[in-house]
From TrEMBL:
Biological process terms in GO annotation: protein secretion by the type II secretion system
UniProt keyword Membrane present: yes
Organism encoding this protein: candidate division CPR2 bacterium GW2011_GWC2_39_10
Parts of the chain that traverse the membrane: 20-40
Superkingdom of this protein's organism: Bacteria
Protein name stated in the entry: Uncharacterized protein
Length: 147
């Protein structure tokens, strides 16, 4: 039997939330947190890809500076060189940053190759990592290559 207050209002026996109400609120919070984490990770990935674009532009400028003084690009024709090792080929001109923004040391994600005396290929693959490696053909997606 329900009790009535002095003013005639019905008093409830429970003073808390039901289990269903708590579960619904927790599910909504979990969905919001998941969306926030996904958005943050996407923004971080785009930021690292922007840094890679900047790095490849700096590398191109260093290679062109080397070419203007030597009338040749560094390296041997037909040899793929990891970008980490590229800096050692022309240390005087190489003022660019060779570290991957992610901190990875994967040798297959960035490479330089001299095609001829006056032509080169420079490639840094962006994230996500499912896009392939420098050694094989790219699947789909962006490629920060300069030829």
């Amino acid at each position: 039997m329900l009790k009535k207050s002095k003013k005639g209002k019905v008093l409830s026996k429970s003073k808390g939330f039901t289990l269903i109400e708590l579960l619904v609120v927790m599910a909504i919070i979990a969905i919001l947190v998941t969306l926030m984490i996904w958005a943050i990770n996407t923004a971080r990935m785009q930021s690292r890809n922007t840094q890679r674009r900047s790095n490849i532009t700096s590398m191109k400028a260093a290679l062109e500076s080397y070419y203007s003084s030597k009338k040749d690009y560094p390296g041997t024709v037909g040899t793929d060189i990891n970008i980490v090792n590229l800096k050692a080929l022309f240390p005087t001109y190489a003022t660019f940053d060779v570290e991957d923004p992610r901190g990875a040391t994967d040798d297959n994600r960035s490479c330089y190759s001299k095609v001829s005396r006056n032509q080169y290929n420079l490639r840094i693959l962006p994230e996500p990592e499912t896009l392939g490696t420098c050694a094989n053909t790219l699947a789909v997606g962006e490629d920060f290559s300069i030829q």
